[in-house]
Every structure is written in C-alpha cells, then in structure tokens.
Fold this sequence. Notes:
Elements: H1 13-43, H2 47-55, H3 59-86, H4 93-107, H5 113-125, H6 132-160, H7 176-196, E1 201-203, E2 206-208, H8 213-237, H9 246-263, H10 271-280, H11 286-326
Amino acid sequence: MEAVPQTATGKPRRKLITRRRLLxxxxxxxxxxxxxxxxxxxxxxxxxxxxxxxxxxxxxxxLLALAATTTGYLILTFYDKLALLHFGIRLPxxxxxxxxxxxxxxxxxxxxxxxxxGTVRYRIYSTYGISGFDVTRVVGxxxxxxxxxxxALGGVVFAATPVRLPDGLDWPLPNLQVLGWxxxxxxxxxxxxxxxxxxxxxxxxxxxxxxxxPLATGQLIVPSLDLxxxxxILYLLxxxxxxxxxxxxxxxxxxxxxxxxxxxxxxxLGVIETIMVLMLGAFIDSAQILSAVLVFRLYYxxxxxxxxxxxxxxxxxxQRRKARRLAP
Length: 328
C-alpha cells in the first residue's frame, strides 16, 4: 500500500491540498455576502431620496468628506502594521494594506465583525505564507488596539468637553468627564506596564507579551487618528451649526460609535442615527442629521464594501489562475 506523502511537519499532503481547494470557496462566500449586504442597504432608500439628500450638501463638503474617508482607510492599514510588527512578521506595506482594507471593509458591514474580518484577512494573508494562528493573533491585536485608542481619545475628549446626555438616560456616573479621567488613568497604567514589563504573562493557560512602549504608543495614536478621520466625514457632511464645536461633536460621535459596537448591529445601523438625533436634536433638525448620516454611510460603509467585493473577486480570479499554472 502506497504511503500518503508527508510534509516536513508530518501532516498529510492530501489535507493541505483539500484546504487549498476550500479556500477559494471562502472568498466566493464572502463576495456573495457583501453583495447581499449592499442590496439590503440600497433598498432602504429610493434614488430620488438619495439625490435629494446629496443636493442639500455643498460640493466642497462632499469632496472634503471623500478625502477624509480615503485618509481614514489609509490610517486603518496601520492597525495591521502594528500587529505584524509586534509578532515579528515582515510584509510589504502594499500587501498589508490589501488585507487590512478588505478586512475592515467587510467587518464594518457584517457581523460578527471579528470573525468576518479574521476570515477575510486569513484568505489574503494565507497567500503570503502567514498561518491561521498568526492571523488570529493579528485580529485580536487590532481589536485591543481599537479599544485602547478609543479609551485614550475618549479620555481626553470626555474630560475636556462637557457633554449633556439625553434626558432620561440611566447613567451611573455624574457626567462623562468622570469617565474621561478614568480612561486617562487606565491609559497611563497601560503605558507604564508596557514600559516596565518585558516578560511574558500567563493568563488562563495562554501566553501574552505586552508590546514595547513605541508600539503601545502607536496603539493609542493610530485608532485616535482613525476615529478623528471617520468623525470628520460626518462633521463635514453636516451644515454649519452654531454652538456645535468640533470637540463637542467628536464627543457625541464617540458615544454613538461605542453604542454601535455594543449593539452588534452591522455598521451600528439605526443605533448611530438614533444617538445622533437624540444628542444633536438641540442644534439641528433631525431630517438634516439623517441626511448627513445617510451620505456618511455611503462613504464609509457601502462604497468601501463595494470596492472590497470587487478587489476580493479579482484576488480570487488571480489565485485560481495561479493554481492552474502550478498544477501538474
């Protein structure tokens, strides 16, 4: 009986071949899922409604919001860059940018976001020789980085900006300024730990190592810039509002952002709109708020998802052609 060829690690080659054949199906499934999400999003609005909303916004503000969107997605690539640096994985930036953009474009629109983002990243990174275990670590590092950045930026913004919460909201703290100072304290503790603890840490049977201080600083800066860029998109789409400064709007945006995450609704759909209407209702008519949020969703969620779906389809076609060339 002929033995099954073995790899260097002893794993049967047949299993590896089966895995390579299944991976394109993952990409195809994600592409179909993206089209389904896009269809559901677009069906909520008629063309006339969309056109009316866009005509209310000056052209220069639309262009500035587009520039902020592009900048925001460029900033997102540094989440993966920081993670790969932490785990000692070297890749050209263009490959990191491709995996990061596809991962975030899908996870922004489809839940569970960590699973979807991880699956898309694995599909891309695996073609560059990165293991599924390392991809899982990268996704986890990116999630922690987002939390740390939100805490750092939210700490400064909430501590410095008095925000009036909607009436009737059951909030355990006197105001958000107290929460801001708590965030600042926790952020400082994290930096101190990264500065002084270089040994590995065992927790529930798993081994962790804190990043170096420069990487930890990057974990605070990158998501802070990311959140500022995405908030600027919506801020630029709103008409001039007396009394609504950008720091105050940023505080409101951060509240809606975390509300969208906690809701586990894809893209925080409905949650962001509700919080914005509740907290901006004193400054502007709700119809104008919803118009701006609609265009914000087109810029930050739908257009990137459509672009990502096309890029993923191109990637799958190229991988199939490459597999055919390498096939015996």
